[in-house]
């Protein structure tokens, strides 16, 4: 049975990325970044090209850190998206679809967190995403903001596709 309030064409591609939460910038600077650096020193840098890009963009304008859902395939850093939409029960709400040029700067491995060249299929991880025309208000208005560790995920999702 089809419900017209949902648009599910995005499922036809495996390039979509579902965002569960965004990280507060203070938490990124006080906890996430120091953890990344500590892990890179302790365990070595697994992906030097991703680490270099992370260093270049970690404080860039219009960039935010996100916790994203399970990737349906290995998504490479540099992946670009053209649309953004609010989701309910993992279904896109058509009235929320907006044009939105965005790009994955890099991903971060969940275990021994450090920059990675791709989101690993089947894993939910952290990503650094840049929005070319500014961060859409939907992200601030609808997505859970993580302000402390550990954290629980919100019930709203946003999809980039």
Describe the structure.
The structure is a single chain. The two termini are 24 Å apart. The model has no long low-confidence stretch (mean pLDDT 89). The protein has helices at residues 25-43, 48-57, 137-142, and strands at 17-23, 63-68, 75-76, 80-88, 91-92, 98-108, 115-116, 118-119, 126-131, 144-146, 157-160. With 161 residues, the protein is α+β, with helices and mostly antiparallel strands. The strands form two sheets. A six-stranded antiparallel beta barrel has the order 1-2-9-6-4-11. The protein is 22% helix and 34% strand.
Could you tell me the strand content as a percent range? Answer: 25-35%
| Topology pattern, helix = H, strand = E | EHHEEEEEEEEHEE
Q: Name the average pLDDT.
A: 89
* Distance between the first and last residues' Cα: 24 Å
**3D shape:** globular
> Total number of β-strand segments?
11
Instruction: Extract low-pLDDT stretches.
Output: none
By DSSP (H or I, 4+ residues per run), the number of helices equals 3
Name the structural class. alpha+beta
Helix content: 10-25%
What's the gyration radius in Å? 15 Å
Largest sheet: 6 strands, antiparallel, barrel
Strand order of the largest sheet: 1-2-9-6-4-11
